[in-house]
Amino acid sequence: MQQYLDLLTTIMEKWVLKSDRTGVGTKSIFGYQMRFDLSEGFPLLTTKKMFLRGIIHELIWFLNGDTNIKYLVDNDVKIWNEWPFQAYLKANNLEADFPKYSLEWSDKLQEFIENIKNDADFAKKWWELGPVYGKQWRDFWGIDQITNVINQIKNSPDSRRMIVSAWNPVEIEEMAKSGLPPCHTLFQFYVANGKLSCQLYQRSADTFLWVPFNIASYALLTMMIAQVCDLEYGEFVHTLWDTHIYTNHFDQVAEQLSRKPFPLPTLEINKNVKSIFDFKIDDFELKNYVSHPAIKAPIAV
Asked: What CATH class does 2-66+133-287 carry?
């Protein structure tokens, strides 16, 4: 994963200072690409400990077409919590009472999570994100894009139309009400020499917090689809557009850049699973993962 550390270094050296929606501010560059050969190991970051179980659960959640994060909350996956919580505060005129990232805000968030776990009506009302990733992947105005692309890979592997888009301009504002318009907007598959490759086009890349997560998620998706299509692993190609580091992540980036990567782990997938929609958390086993400790950083909401 030296490629990822090189990306951090590039941003810190060639940055443009930009304001952003969150008000935090970023160092940003425009346009960057990384390539990962999936036959050489699973690209899970080793210079800080990664939460693979959360990555798998989120991907299963997307593939199920789900847009309510109760499934994630029930499985102790916290990555989507802040956005619907902030929407809840705004809708109830509570933003001034609970300033972002304050102790009071954190306590209220924990209370909110408990309500989600224990009150089905509350969860249905406040933890529905709108037509985000899962909706667009499985029901883009009636089109099941995941099923379609797998059928294309199996039946027309030389097609240049094996694309899944999460960016639905008609529904962007609806997505933004309680979540985010898709950051990883579109991905395309390519078959050659019996191997499946995938390229992700990401419009907005929080490089310290979420890019390592995105790399692992789409590498995993590529491996899962390769298995159900009887193909070997090719490359995961990650193309980033607005590629940024938030100003409140600079110390964490410096800590990460001081660490030396360990060898990549391997990820074994249950070979008995033949449908992309049948995978469960227990169908994946990470082996030989050695990492440095986690590095905590705030999410810019």
From this structure: alpha beta
In this predicted structure, what is the pLDDT of residue 292? 98
128-162 tens-digit pLDDT: 888 999 999 999 999 999 999 999 999 999 999 99
Query: In the 8-state DSSP scheme, what is residue 119?
Result: -
Helices 82-91 and 103-118: crossing angle, nearest 10°?
Answer: 100
Write down the pLDDT at residue 21: 78
Q: Are 166 and 186 in contact (CB under 8 A)?
A: yes
Look at residues 167, 240, 255, 164 and name the one whose alpha carbon lies nearest to residue 206. 240
The letter for the amino acid at 81 is N
- What was the pLDDT predicted at 69? 87
Strand stretches in 73-194, DSSP E: 163-165, 184-192
Domain boundaries, the chain: 2-66+133-287, 81-128
198: annotated active-site residue: no
HEC sequence for 238-254: EEEEEEEEEHHHHHHHH
DSSP letter string over 24-73? S-EEEEEEEEEEEEGGG-----SSS---HHHHHHHHHHHHTT--BTHHHH
> How open is the CA angle 234-167-64, to the nearest 5 degrees?
65
Q: Give the active site residue among 183, 200, 205, 219.
A: 183
Query: 5-38, pLDDT tens digit by residue?
Result: 999 999 999 999 988 877 888 999 999 999 999 9
